[in-house]
Amino acid sequence: MIRLGVNIDHVATIREARKTIEPDPVVAAIESEKAGCDGIVCHLRKDRRHINDKDLDLMKLKVTTHLNLEMSVDPEIVEIACRIKPDQATIVPENRQEVTTEGGLDVVANFDRVKEVVGRLSAVGIRVSLFIDPERAQIEASKNAGVDLVEYHTGRYAEEFLSGGDHLKELEILSEMTAFGIELGLTVCAGHGLTYENVVPVARIEDMHELNIGHSIIANSVYWGLPEAVRRMKGLMR
Ligand code: PXP
User: Fold this and answer.
1) Interstrand relation of 127-132 and 149-153 (parallel, antiparallel or unpaired)
2) What is the torsional sign of CA 130, 105, 6, 24?
3) Which domain range does residue 83 map to?
4) Nearest CA among 171, 118, 126 for reference residue 142
5) What does pTM read for this prediction?
6) Neighbours of 176 (CB within 10 A)
7) Residues in a beta bridge with 153
8) Which of helix, strand or coil describes residue 69?
9) From the CA of 193, how far away is ligand 1's center (Å)?
10) CA–CA separation, 224 vs 83, rounded Å?
11) Residue 215 near ligand 1, beta carbon < 6 Å
12) For the chain, is the Cβ count within 10 Å smaller at the N or the C terminus?
């Protein structure tokens, strides 16, 4: 059955808005797991704008399902990942000015550095995924960089869906590129901008392994509570 990874960064974003101690992203992770998610995703950014080092230490201790750390190839962050040893690391592009991760990692242009970081993380037993746009060249480069797992950026699909554009074309691309990834022996996940309205067609893509969803779940937990928001998303994905 398709898996749901809950990205809890935005719980920490709310905490950081007041520089206080609540809400606690670790408590949110535990509640999400109790509600039936399959894994927890968090992004330790260079600027520590939401998740911080202490959150990550505690997350490693408390998460019992599967901890997926999103990270850039920054040397300091790579060191931390090698020390913490999450179950999985997903390498994402990171740009200080961005509001959220804009577009996938350019594995083609940054091949040597990405391959080196994949090697370092893999050597300490971390499974590595690359967050890429659903494009042939990026998928092939990911395979050549030594990963067996990729996550496709669904931002274009989500934008087209929201603006009433041609989201079906983007869905077809996601679907074709999932089949292509599988052909190369990769496990394919997807995420970014997925919501209660647009998630079903992506969850139905054949061989889609996992969806990683943050903003929409945390946003709707304001109305429904976090456990219910997780249960509803999981229910739609089934
Ligand atoms: N997957 C990855 C690799 C991401 O960087 C993000 C955003 O942090 C997500 C999934 C979740 O995106 P959203 O918050 O839009 O659901």
Assistant:
1) parallel
2) positive
3) 3-232
4) 118
5) 0.97
6) 13
7) 191
8) strand
9) 7
10) 37
11) yes
12) N
Report the catalytic residues: 43, 70, 192
For tokens 């998610």, the residue is 37
- Taking the C-alpha atoms of residue 208 and residue 200, their distance in angstroms, rounded to an integer, is 12
Any domain includes 20:
yes
User: Does a structural domain hold residue 222?
Assistant: yes
The residue whose two tokens read 């809890």 is 8
User: What's the number of CA atoms in the CB half-sphere (13 Å) around residue 175?
Assistant: 13
Nearest to 49 by CA among 1, 106, 96, 112: 96
Nearest C-alpha to atom 4 of ligand 1 is from which residue? 192
Looking at the domain assignment, is residue 237 inside a domain? Answer: no
The number of distinct structural domains making up the chain is: 1
User: If we measure between CA atoms, which residue out of 134, 183, 137 comes closest to residue 155?
Assistant: 134
Tell me the CATH number at 100. 3.20.20.70
Instruction: Profile the chain (238 residues) by mean pLDDT over runs of 10 residues.
Output: 97 97 98 98 96 98 98 97 98 80 90 98 98 98 98 98 97 98 98 98 98 98 98 97
